[in-house]
Design goal:
The protein has about 170 residues and is mainly beta. About 5% of the residues lie in helices and about 35% in strands. The protein has a 4-stranded antiparallel beta sheet with strand order 5-6-7-8, with no helix packed on it. Strands 9-10-11 form a 3-stranded antiparallel beta sheet, with no helix packed on it. A two-stranded antiparallel sheet has the order 1-2.
């Protein structure tokens, strides 16, 4: 309130004003405040992050699965809840969907038709980016930037994986 009343000039508020209406009210952005419990969990029911496949011919949902997990809850026997996601998937001609956008610092491969998780690996930091898939000399590779951030530890590495030959479609 002190900032709004002009008694405090400091803070991270960003003033947003309409360029076309000089008498328009002023609004202030303080960032995205999350509703969290005292344990740091989200203040709504899970899932807290999902991966959804749509049928582009019909527009209907093909499948949806929780994406990511909170290790402390998984260790207590609570099914995967999903986490915040920052990044997109990459899909191969062989029918694999790779994504590493979760806060749990894992990269996963899903069957693009069923949503079944086929593989996962721990990363040195969260991969809040879209993976790249490329082929070199007949071998297919997957690479992800592991920069972390957004509530996870920071990182500065790229991790590459070689896909098994049987997953490459000619």
């Amino acid at each position: 309130m002190e900032f709004l009343l002009g008694k405090n000039e400091k803070g991270d508020k960003k003033e947003l004003e309409s360029q076309n209406a000089p008498l328009a009210p002023r609004y202030y952005m303080t960032g995205y405040q999350k509703l969290l419990t005292k344990e740091g969990l989200y203040g709504s029911n899970p899932p807290w992050g999902v991966l959804t496949a749509l049928d582009m011919k019909t527009g209907l949902k093909k499948w949806q699965v929780p994406l990511g997990e909170i290790d402390s809850l998984t260790q207590m026997g609570i099914p995967k809840t999903g986490t915040e996601n920052y990044g997109g998937p990459a899909v191969t001609a062989g029918g694999l969907l790779f994504i590493a956008a979760t806060k749990d610092e894992k990269i996963r491969a899903f069957d693009k038709e069923t949503g079944e998780i086929l593989w996962e690996a721990k990363l040195p930091a969260a991969g809040h980016a879209t993976p790249a898939v490329y082929e070199q000399n007949g071998k297919q590779f997957l690479v992800i930037a592991c920069g972390g951030g957004k509530g996870t530890k920071s990182g500065d590495s790229y991790v590459a994986f070689a896909l098994p030959d049987e997953l490459i479609k000619n």
